[in-house]
Each structure stands twice: as structure tokens, then as C-alpha cells.
């Protein structure tokens, strides 16, 4: 618990103050004590914003999110007794990467650690500039909106021994509103983390998964055994967005990204009235979810049959084929395939081949219902 609190404190200070270190005091002794404390810190690293001007420009100019609105999600309410770090709620350690997750108490943002060097260096050195340019020119992009990128600066024991994650991304939370819906007693939202499942997964495929725990296998990609029912216009917009997004990722060697899909059941009394969906607060109408104005895949697209609202975002696009760890993994799987012919994993395939399978998966879960057939059957 202490580790989570100190990590949260580092993140909040970097966002609200720009740095985890106090401004230099006129007292040399106090400054030395601050540096001494920073060096021996195990979990509370000094974080700085990476390319802050680029992310500020996206927030202000393209997402119409003011600095005050953004920072308020990371600040304790005025007059309240809460501490700043309590504005972040730990969700837990999830996934094979060892990432830590936090949610702001207002549920607008998620903070995800990016502990692997191959991933945060790829985003910083290879993908960040194309990502910023793409998000500025593609307002309906399905790529998750990253509002800040934080990295550790200076030396500390916690950073040297990797006791705390050195990098974090702050991103929109497309599950925003779920807590409010729960309080109203509505049916809980469903979500899936979708990747092509036709790849070789050692945790699943070696000895039929008998050598791996169920907890480990639960972190593998989900399967969506249903359809997203859309009109032709909705489907074309969806396909156009993920075609542009996956083209960008493939051009920069990214693989293993996923489609995070959310399905929200519309209350029965509103099932035949799309305007009532917005009035029910299922579809946010304020930043960080907009612009563009609803409906969009980050705010919620009503299904053509009027029974659900769907949200979607492309996540986890930090695994690049040309980085050292992916190259090692590709070599090991290639050696394994000489003996077993099991096929590539989603993290060792080519960017073009991954994009092809990912596109096939996304198109396969969509059912197009023409305007004449949008009524209930």
C-alpha cells in the first residue's frame, strides 16, 4: 500500500507542479537534504513531463481541454481533508508487463506505468512525434488519447533497482461514467480487450495450457462472441478510423496492440429513442471525451438496434519489432518453431501481418444493418 501511495504522489506532483522536487531553496543545506532524500527514495521517484508542449497543444487546441480542467482531476477538492495523492486510486498490477494502473477519483483519466525500456523508449524516440501529428489531424482516431507522458529524472535507489516504474502515461478513461451508472442501479458495463486469437500463445497452447495458472491465462486476449450492430454510415466511419490508425502503427513497426471494446446496455424504457441515450448520461458531452461532438467511439455509438451503446479505443501500441527485447523474443520463437512449427506470436509477427489479422478481427465483429432493417426483429 505504501508503494502505491508514493508512486501516486510522484505522478500527481509531476502533473500539478511539473516536477517532484521543490524549487531550489536559498539554503544550501536544505537543498543538499532534498537531493539526499531523492537519491534514497525507493518508490517516490522524481518525474518530469516529456514533451509537455506537444501534449498541452493536443489538450488545449484539439481536445478543447483547459489546463485547469485537466489538473483539477489530480487535485484534492478545496476545503477537503484529502491529500493530493488520494486523487489517484490504485487499480492494481495487471498484465504480463508488470504495469501499475491508477484512476483519478473522478474517473476521467487512467495512469498506466510503462516499465519496460523497449516500450517507453520506443514511444519517446519513434512514435511520439507521429502520434502527436496523427491525433492533431484525425479527430475521430480510435487511438487512446494520451494527455501526458512522464519519465523519471535524476538518480535514486528506486530507479536503479527498478522498485518503482520509471515512466507513466496519462490517458483518457473510456469507462468514464461506469461508477455513476452503477449507483443508478443500471446493468454493469461489459468490456473486452481484443486481439487476434489465432496466434501462438505459449500460456494457452503448450500442453493445452496445463502448465500455466488460470490467473495467468486470464490476462490473455478476450474473445467477443457477438456482433456490434451498426448502420452503414457508422460502420464506414469505424472502418475508416481504424484503417488510418493501424496504418500509422504498421508504418512504425508496432504490433500486439488491442481494441478495447465497451458495451453498455441501454435501459429498456429508452431502447427505442437514441436522443434519450444522450440524456441518460451514457454519452459524455464534455472534455476529455469530446471533441468531436457525440456520438463518437470514445463517447459512445448507439447500436443500430437501439439496445446498446458501444465505446472503443486502440490501446497498448508500445511494442515495436525493432527494439532489443522484441528482437530477442522473435529469435527465441523462431528457434522454437524449428522444433514445433507452432507459428508466430502476436509480439513476434510482422507489423503488416499483425495489422491484417487485427483488421480482419475488427471487421468480423461488425454486423451492418441497412436503414430499412434497423427496427427490432
TrEMBL record:
> Region (Disordered): which ranges?
273-301
**Bilayer-spanning residue ranges:** 29-47
Matches recorded under SUPFAM superfamilies: SAICAR synthase-like (SSF56104)
Molecular function GO labels:
1-phosphatidylinositol-4-phosphate 5-kinase activity; ATP binding
Domain PIPK intervals:
1-366
Name a single GO biological process.
phosphatidylinositol phosphate biosynthetic process
> What keywords does the record list, in alphabetical order?
ATP-binding, Kinase, Membrane, Nucleotide-binding, Transferase, Transmembrane, Transmembrane helix
What the entry lists under InterPro entries is as follows: PInositol-4-P-4/5-kinase_C_sf, PInositol-4-P-4/5-kinase_core, PInositol-4-P-5-kinase_N, PInositol-4/5-P-5/4-kinase
Q: Where are stretches of biased composition, namely Pro residues?
A: 285-295
- GO-annotated cellular components: plasma membrane
PANTHER family in the cross-refs:
PHOSPHATIDYLINOSITOL-4-PHOSPHATE 5-KINASE, PIPK DOMAIN-CONTAINING PROTEIN
Q: Name the chain's protein.
A: PIPK domain-containing protein
Recorded source organism is Immersiella caudata
